[in-house]
Amino acid sequence: MAGIRNALQLRTAQTQTLSMTPQLQQAIKLLQLSSIELEQEIQQVLEENPFLEKVSQDSNDESLEAIEERENSDSDSFDPFDNDSSAKNISDSMIDNDNYGNENYDPFNESAGTHLEENHTTSDLDSSSNDVSESQNKEEDIIRNDDYINKSIKGLAIENNDIYEGETTETLHDHLMFQLEMSPLDGTDKLIAMNIIDAVNDSGYITESLEDILLSVQKDDPEATIEDVKAILKLVQHYDPLGVASRDAAECMLIQLNELDSSTPYRDLAIKVISEYSDLLSNRDFRSLCQKMSIKENVLKEIIEVLKKLNPRPGNFAPSKKTDFVIPDVIVVKKSDGSYTAELNNSANTLIRINEAYSQLSKQARTVQEKEFFKSHLQEANWFISSLEKRNETLLKVSRCIVEHQTEFMDKGPSAMKPMVLNDVATEIEMHESTISRITTEKYIYTPKGTFELKYFFSSSVGTDDGGAASATAVKSFIKDLIAGENPRKPLSDSKLSEMLLEKGMNVARRTVAKYREALGIESSSQRKKLI
Fold it and tell me: Name one GO cellular component term (predicted).
């Protein structure tokens, strides 16, 4: 048997493979960047490539009036959004998924930091917040939408359909530490208070046990005791806002109730409800609660009125972190013929161009190294500008396609949204679906009904009686409106909502209604039921 022999051989073969050029990789990267990320990318390229320079801001500013004039060059006058689309209507038409109805709260859930919703009078909190803001020389300059429509766009940020030129940065932690510094506490007592404040979460509740806080304190003062921690905790809980650093909603509300004047009507009964029967109130078992308390329903109503004036979420005193701002990449403009179109917000990003001085200097290169340097950097500069222009062209083309399909939304809001998927736009403008996905991610459009991410306009469809289709977004809007108008003592069940939607021609199963309701952050009918 012949032995196995190892040998080295050299062979050549032709194969075909797909690979992306650096230019293509750069173009794809720019497509998916948000306006903020794109700005950072542009600044980095400007620092690295001397052949690029920033276009003067004066030549970059373009007001809405200029956009309107460009779109309506044959018209003497123009209103970007007609009289039916006032700033108030714009604001009122926004869908707020996080704050449905200020009465649907459960102040007695043990996981108060997560599930409690505001349902209390906040005038005192607002006034104290304003006082602190003034003492700290913080200023928040808010410009309403109607001002935005009629002034030059300077790349201002939009948040909750308002435009902010500044932001409030004082947090709850800052507010508590300021009060601590103004207090006479020192030594171990101050150290304990600092550890307690550090343990307060965004909702205003402490997230660590008193034992863990004690262990942290004992690293610096081994003689500290749990009684010391409890005593300082009571002191911090009486800082502004009252009830902060509580361990749950019941403790927070009891602190506030005990601070009320003893002559306050129904105060003592409210304390008893929270102390002994918070579980019944949390579950809205009003009949059992009345029986246990030996009171009538009208008395319970008065007790609940007292509780509704409390603040179960002291963390809402101030923003827990810096507000995220949105700068619209695209602006919807209404033309003189009543139709809508989209225009880029050029002031959202820095405009760049080839530096003419360096371009001329490249012609004087003599050595090979100089020529190679100038050639490579000039080529990269041209590639970047080309990729940037391609991104903007794609963004504008996709935005105009969306606006054309969603014209009724611009007039009527979410209830008029038409079903549309990525493939619909990709087919119409002859681009790949992945390109549409990239260019609509984290890109925002300013419309008569508010500022939205472009992907907001893509939604699945629901069948209708006439064989057509309705947008899932429109169905959610109808569900929200129906629940908003329900009798709180007899809230609409998911089955009833399904029947009411069918009357409007939308065939939506009960399970689908439940899914959409949960997506809107709305509780079930049993949880929404109110005594008053």
Answer: DNA-directed RNA polymerase complex
